[in-house]
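User: Structure please.
Assistant: Input sequence and predicted structure:
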Amino acid sequence: MANATQQKEGSGFLDRFFEVTKRGSTLGTEFRGGLVIFMTMVYIIILNPIILAFNKDVTGNFIGGAAPHPAAIASATALTAGVMTLLFGLVARLPFAIAAGLGINSFLAVTIVHGVTWPEAMGLVVIDGIVIVILAATGLRTMIFNAVPPALKTAITVGIGLFITFIGLVDGGLVRRNADAANTPVPVNWGVGPNHELGIPTVVFIFGVLLIAVLMALKVRGAILIGLVVDTVVAIILEAILHIGGKFVDGKFVTPFGWDTTIPGWPTQVVALPDLSTIGQVDLFGSFGRLGALAAIMLIFTLVFSNFFDAMGTMTGLSKQAGLADAKGNFPRLTSALVVEGVGAVAGGYTSTSSNTVYIESASGIAGGARTGLATSFTGLLFIVAAFFSPLTSVVPIEVGASALVIVGCLMMAQVVDIDWKDWTISFPAFLAIVVMPFTYSIANGIGVGFVSYVIIRAFAGKAKEIHPLLWVVAAGFFVYFLLPAFHLNG
């Protein structure tokens, strides 16, 4: 009797604290949603070290240290994602998870680290996070968020839906980059080569998409989670029978028909202590001396702009999908969410995992019914546990997780009907924001093009007084942001 009473009281506390019932959810739905989010995001523990650990900084050293340290970056990636997602769930109480941002880590690995050392690059990320936290804490970030018209917020949501669908198709192997000599008008293709061959991993991806779609058509509760689990089992069985192998061996590309980042199969080792050697490798102002103050400031500006609006767009899309946004696109505990997300950048820099930000993959859990921070609190705990069970991350291939992204993209597209397509001054900027995101593979680019075109078109249409003053400032900032690549900051 005592245990039953305690369980009832515990459930009551969770319900009240996270407002589970108030938001139309249940404890079981939240936990399932948190597990789905984890399963669709767990690939970052494998992918982040691939992007970071095998790139060299300006000194010629691998950015994980004097030699590649993928295990250390994997551990730090899992722990940072876990702590920040748990913090976000408890403070912002929203179903948004946080991990190392793919756009920022690629920018760091491909662009910044070739001009500075890895600790210096992480110093830039920490400063970027501090700036974002200050903007959020002072309310300026919220003011900018509120200045965005509802139509553009809806367009951001729809654009993100297309964007993550594109990510899913690419990660699933269905859409691939054309060969350099293809001489086709577009850089992507269906499958590989002129005959559009598909490997077994891509077939697993397609099976996962269709399975989840059928389960959702049948209104099966937990359709996405069930689909991911079943698809993972299928992947493990096929690998055991066919010995497909990976696309890469020892970092070298060997075949387009292998598994992308994770070869499914039960690991021989289950538990491993986290390697935390990359944590604290930060040189806060070293890049200023190496590059010069102006060049360093411009890099920070680029990081802030990308981080700021990428996260804003993601949270806008997620909140609307979850039904938590009001008519203006604002959602509960907005300021807290923006502050914690900014702290994620600081944490990512300090742990050498790159800036951590809100993940659009959170939409997979929202699609399964998650509406509160209880879901992402559970996701955060799973990430922390994953740091100690890093061998288990090799079980779920990215092709399986990608199947959920395509489904979620379809769900987010539904909001396109909320845009007033009869008003050209609204519809055209919204259209540009929607299409630029997937076509340039950047949420920030889509937002920027949408903002700039909105201000210009509305102003010349005689509606300049209807444009919020902050939107003028943001549009001007994006204009500068788009011009930055024209400058050779490293001499």
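The CA atoms of residues 132 and 308 lie 7 Å apart.
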